[in-house]
Amino acid sequence: MKKIKYGIIGAGTMAREHILNISLIDNAEVVTLSDPHEDSLNQCKEILKTKVSCFKSHQEMIKENIVDVYLISSPNFTHIGILKDVIKTKKHILVEKPLCTNTRDCLEIKKLTKDYPSVFWTAMEYRYMPPVSKFIKEIHNNTIGDLKTLTIREHRFPFLKKINDWNRFEKNTGGTLVEKCCHFFDLMRLIVGSNPISVYASGGQDVNHLDEEYNGKKPDIIDNAYVIVNFENGARSMLELCMFAENSDMQEELVAIGHKGKIETSVPSNDSGKIASNLRIGMRDGKTKIENIEVDKKIIEAGHHHGSTYYEHLAFLNAIKNNSVPEVSLSDGLIAVAVGEAAEKSIKLGRLINIEEIIN
Length: 360
Ligand SMILES: NC(=O)c1ccc[n+]([C@@H]2O[C@H](COP(=O)([O-])OP(=O)(O)OC[C@H]3O[C@@H](n4cnc5c(N)ncnc54)[C@H](O)[C@@H]3O)[C@@H](O)[C@H]2O)c1
Fold this sequence. Notes:
alpha/beta; Rossmann fold; Dihydrodipicolinate Reductase, domain 2
């Protein structure tokens, strides 16, 4: 069987997770890498089982025309420029979240990819964490009735150190609620099955990176927030984010309540060493069901996202094979960025932001 050939643009932390996961899949392989940073290329080469060609720029890689898929895992602010070049190849694209650092750039990419002939997929790993997938499936099966409220809580460690400290500044990342939390806004929209209409947020940078300075500039990324999102169908959702809570047993906790009952699950933090968590369904009539959801240790060990990167690649490869629409489209990536941008704006202006103010 012909293997799908990946070219990875941006060979840092997330690229290494992609490489380890792709290596677990029979019909896929990484054949080339591009990164201006020699050390990053070397670290990726160390974990690759086969020889790959390496380039300092994505333009040189594109010229070689040796891949089926371009996987973009470079810093957020580089996505727009790289995407503009990669789109011209008409090859399959898997672009790491956030699609771009702001909605305007996402809209530009949307315009440029009208009638795109291949799979264009925004990476949203959290959809593919086994307890989260099961949680979504139960809600969509109507187990708890009409969904009314959805709460997502993430308690985690601060942003890690990055090359050139790109992730310390909002202009490079889009801000924490775009960079990190686009995952959760994507999940909310998928779970609720409706589009967001307005966002209200409160948040700040209260603990992390306060003593850091880069070329005379202090980091400007928030480390905690509450974000409330109202949906067209009347459901409401809330995100609670705290990034100075590294000693947490569960990193993410999700609770959804419908008119018939409640469902909850959680995702173990990496440091907890746990490979399983519970999914609990508590019906208002008194019935309770608890399921233990375990992830294969080999898959857990290939990354930091509780097995999700592996499962997302399987779904992505399936879309290529079947020539089907992507499960996570460019528009999904765009709306997740728009909600993040609205939340950042809400914190700055201290008022509710209508999504129409962001996507117009
Ligand atoms: N889906 C997830 O859960 C998840 C998790 C982590 C990171 N990410 C995303 O993956 C991307 C990379 O994050 P990371 O944590 O690996 O960052 P990183 O800093 O560890 O790696 C980025 C790499 O890109 C390289 N780079 C910089 N400019 C480049 C360019 N123009 N072309 C090619 N390479 C370039 C850097 O030298 C570095 O090696 C970001 O968009 C980030 O938001 C997603």
